[in-house]
User: Fold this.
Amino acid sequence: MTSQSAARRKHRHHTWYTARVFYRSDIRTRRLQKFHTFEELYFLVSGVTSSAALQKAKKHVKQKEHSYKSMRGETVSWRLLSLWGFRKGPIRNLKTVLKFTSDLSKA
Assistant:
């Protein structure tokens, strides 16, 4: 085995995956009403294997959680609700997004 073939083995091909994620905002306020906003996002992640890409996606979506103060002085927190879907390949157009969404809702 040459050093060149060993180097090739180290640089395995990465595959792209799409992660469908839902976040929920919680607003801490003095008022009695509870108000939530939901956001759906798609992230592209790459990995040598699907499990490696899934672990990378979980870490990335957790890092996107954040909080801030609104103009009214309320604390708004965006928290991960769920990693809803994970599939091989990037989503290229709206037709693919709709198919991806309908495939997940059937599961």
